[in-house]
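job 3f2a | input accepted
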Amino acid sequence: MESWPRNMPATLEDLCVQYCVRNLQTFTHQFTTTHHTTTYTLFPGLSLPKTICDKIFHFYMEHVDHAHSTIDGFLNIFTNVRGTQLSRLNLANSYVSDLGLGLVKDQPIVELDLSCCTRLSSLCIPFINKMGKTLRSLRLENATDMFEGIRDHVDSISAAQSEDCIDKVPAEKVEQFDDPILNCPHLRKLCLRDFQLEDNLLIGNIQLHDVFRWCKLLTHLDLTQSTVAMETFPHLQCLHHLVSLSLADVDIQDLDAAIDNLCQLKQLKHLDVSQGQSETPVMYPHPELYLQQLVTGLPLLTSLDISGTNLAGFEKTEIQSFRPSRNHHGDEAPQEADSAGRCSIPGLEGRMLEFLGLFGCAHDACYRKNIPAKRVTGESDEEQVLLSLQVYQDRCGLLIKALNTVFHLFRNFAVSRQCAVLEAILAGMKRHLWDKQVQIVGSASLFYIAKGEQKEYITQRQRRSIISLLLRAMETYPSEQTMLRNGCLTLSVFNIPHDVMYCYEKLVNFLLRMLERAQRDDYSHRIGIFLLNCLACQVDGKEKEIVGSLGAIETMLSIIRRKLLADVCDDVMEVAWSTMWNVTDETAANCERFMDKDGMGLFLSCLEKFKDHAELLRNMMGLMGNIAEVKELRPRLMVTEYVQVFSDLLDSTSDGIEVSYNAAGVLAHLASDPEETWLVSRPARHEVLQRMVGAINRWDIRARRNINYRSFQPILRLLTIFDTPEVQHWAVWALCNLCGFCPEKYCTLLEKECGICLLENIQADPRPYKEIQRLAQRVLKQVHVRSSWEDQEEEEEEEEQVLVGASGEAGQGDGRLGEDVDKHIVKDNDDEDMGFVDSDSDEEIRL
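job 3f2a | predicted structure (847 res):
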């Protein structure tokens, strides 16, 4: 198995940078402009080193959800070149404006990426030129609109000059748009991807080859998917230092003439003429001749990409003679194939390239033997596919095909280098956030990695990258069911909620909006509500209140209403109640939200229509128990219809004792208030208490419960109600049962929350009847036995340590406290129902 990176925590420097970016007030002043946008300025006298500035900028662009106009305000931090220094400015896919770019024009920028910046216009070109003294790399992808307007400026200057009235033209126009247009004399790398040109003109009188004339030191030129006229090719010859040229997805009409011109670039080491946009390979006439001419004319060529074409030609096979050969003893020997070591790519005979791109080539070129290259992209095996994922990060067409191929490899369990594949998929998805197909196909493979045999090696950084990219993809395509399905199913594989706590509120908010939009209960709807329920489990009251404030109660009630109208009780209905059970646990605000939104009306309707559904009854009664724990809400439960329902459910045997147990808990809390607060005449208080004791006496004290309390405080409060011993009876029975089937957890919890003294008080007081005191004594005995056992374990451990120390032999532990309890346990946190989705169904992952 390949080596994975060590699961190391972030460095202190990185943590400080992250904190500062998330709390910009730590080093900047903040103010609001007249356009209601937020702008930041560096504290006076503060100076930040270059490495820190680059990290601050990178983290902000990668992780902060900045609004469309906020990036300009953030860039304002770097206007002070004495206090800040930036060297790499990647603004790709951002909403930076011309004004925003102008704020950093004096920074010593070495690398600048302005790809897909839709708000930039020709007014930003002077700012790029201002950076030209230090600029070494410039990337302008899909930025044709940036050159709009230059025609008018250039034409006005030309007209003024011809009429000897140059003084009528504003000086700033002459300075800004006079030749050269791109004044970056030290530029080494230029990317003009996806430029839609007309007649080989950028706009107006500015020809593409003029850019080459102004940037003579270029070593790398990328014209991928741009419109390039044949007139451009001769002008490439002025780039004497060019070592890398990409003409990928460029429609070359006259290949003969293009090859003649390309062969003049004698310093060229890398050439890309691949095609990845069409479903089938691009077929050229005389492919073998063309390839031979290219290779012969470029003597230094070591890297060549001809993917998606037929330039690899046919593999030639020699007709073998039937005459037997003879060995050195004169005996006949088996005929050896003369072509055993023959080059399988016609035109590359006698050459050994460092790299050869054969992905999607005609005639299955990548499947051949004796390919004359050390590294090959293609579909024949994992090594070729992995290299394709890494090489075609900037090529959507080929990247999607490579992602499709690796997905099918995962389905056939044929991927061993999962770490490298994971990093390549994450990089591709991050690079192409706005390409739906990349996100869908990438997410499909992430599912197999996240649940695969190497999942334990995934680092925290990688886990967060997976989760963040999936969440962002789902937010970008909220109506794409396949994306939602893949994203939610992959998220369900992780340790929820632990792995998503860093983006907890964001994920909860998205899932709620997704459930609100869903018009039908398809798979993504189902898994979405299960995920939300998991997020409400095993979290503290703060997170539960966040879930409630974002609208979880209202959304769940809406889902339940739709189910009632459809007369359907399924797992979605059950989990909707379970989610409300979870978010109301010891969270009074959410309990009040439930009451205010007519939750009790839905409770009665569901009880009437689906009274035979045990799981539903259990979840609903668990929620009722949470509401009954809130003293301020108990008067709203004191309604004849409600109390009668709770009383009748005492006799329920649905789901074992769970429904009866929860009903008794609700009534115990109602009866814990003074007798005068019992506002209903029927059923009478004493009758209800009598029925409650009868139900408790029927329960099996040794029953194993599918339950997980994290706090005993609501139960312990009932131990002090001596005026109503029936209330104490339910509380003591609950403690005795819990400490009996899970003593290692609940005995410790009882001691921690000072429950021992309360039980001792019950034993010392004459008011509780004998059964209560007997149960209290049993609980105390369980705690004592547990404590004695722990003391014995500690003594044995100390003795073992002494013996080990004497012998000098001991193995180091792994520092873990043991494996977690079964992740799929149904309840958590005071009767919470966690719920989970079976993520082993491969059929649910789609492309």
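job 3f2a | The longest helix spans residues 770-807.
job 3f2a | closed
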